[in-house]
Design brief:
Largest sheet: 3 strands, mixed
Oligomer: single chain
InterPro entries: DUF5781 (IPR043940)
Number of domains: 2
Number of strands: 5
């Protein structure tokens, strides 16, 4: 639904169906807002792939569609990464603590990274990783550039994006390396490691190698207890990485 070429979405379908399948049909909704991220919606009788026009006409369109089909498969398969809610994890990870709302909201990104690991276990089972590597490298480089621009610009105000938050940028770098290493999709001397080192230096409170190892070694088919423990550890470590702030807190 939207005036963009259907080829990338049909091509992703063909790749996906070599090894996997979906019980429900998929509708593709092209959104006009270029800032909207690609995401999947799940309904009783179908799935919806939401994607911005910019993304739908980019060189990554097929890979983005394939990634969302993988999320749909995990959802239909009731994989614990796609069924466990974050509220329970937050209650277990942060009892009695006061946490800045910004940081609490970013904990959702940690859970999304874990979901993405499991979705891309499927994606990289049916498609090469070269475009994904380039995409992750570009995203990390952009975040670092935005961090540098923010640091040299006016002070004050609220940090609204992950790129303006060094801790989140470091965790994003850890996720990218973890995903690539999990699938042997990056060489040891690749430039993405240089970018990750810069992100690591910018966030001394974050143990980037630890986060990378946590994401990289997520159990392939965990039960609820194992997966809950992994998320609790990730959330607790991320919150610990942030110094106490004066921002509004949520109990």
């Amino acid at each position: 639904m939207g005036a963009v070429p259907a080829g990338p979405f049909l091509g992703a379908r063909d790749l996906f169906e070599y090894e996997y399948d979906l019980e429900k049909p998929v509708e593709v909704h092209v959104r006009e807002n270029p800032d909207e991220r690609t995401w999947a919606g799940h309904y009783d009788d179908h799935h919806v792939l939401n994607i911005s026009r910019r993304a739908a006409t980019s060189v990554m369109a097929r890979e983005l569609a394939l990634h969302e089909y993988a999320h749909m498969h995990r959802y239909e398969d009731a994989h614990v990464s796609h069924t466990m809610g974050l509220s329970e994890v937050l209650f277990l990870a942060l009892p009695g603590r006061r946490v800045e709302r910004r940081v609490l909201q970013q904990c959702e990104q940690l859970a999304n990274h874990a979901k993405d690991i499991y979705a891309d276990d499927i994606t990289l089972d049916v498609a090469p990783a070269d475009k994904l590597l380039t995409f992750l490298e570009s995203q990390l480089a952009t975040a670092l550039a935005e961090r540098s621009a923010a640091a040299s610009g006016p002070t004050g105000g609220s940090r609204l994006t992950a790129a303006a938050d060094p801790e989140m940028t470091a965790v994003n770098a850890a996720f990218a390396l973890a995903l690539l290493e999990r699938h042997d999709a990056v060489s040891e001397g690749h430039r993405i490691y240089e970018f990750a080192d810069l992100a690591d230096a910018d966030a001394p409170g974050v143990d980037l190698p630890w986060f990378k190892e946590q994401f990289r070694t997520l159990a392939r088919d965990p039960d609820e207890s194992v997966y809950r423990r992994a998320l609790v550890d990730l959330v607790r470590a991320f919150v610990d990485a942030h110094e106490t702030t004066t921002g509004p807190a949520a109990d």
